[in-house]
Amino acid sequence: MPIYRYLCQSCKKEVTVLKGINDPDPKCPDCGQPMEKQIPKVQIKGGNSSCSAQSCSGCSGCSSK
Q1: I want to staple 64 with a disulfide (CB 3.0 to 4.6 A). Which of 6, 36, 53, 58 is the partner?
Q2: What is the reported pLDDT for 65?
Q3: What residue spans define the domains of the chain?
Q4: Distance CA 22, CA 4 (A)
Q5: 52 exposure class (CB count in 10 Å sphere: 0-12, 13-18, 19+)
């Protein structure tokens, strides 16, 4: 089962929940209001900020060869 992060829009309480796909969204443990699933933040690693498609010389961090 995946782990999801939820945020209460009323009191801003944040919780992490182990939840099945068909399980209902949780209610806030503090105020009882429905909680909203948060989209995970994704960080893209790699690449060279000074490398562009026009100036790429095949550096190991460049995917635009």
Answers
A1: 53
A2: 46
A3: 3-33
A4: 13
A5: exposed
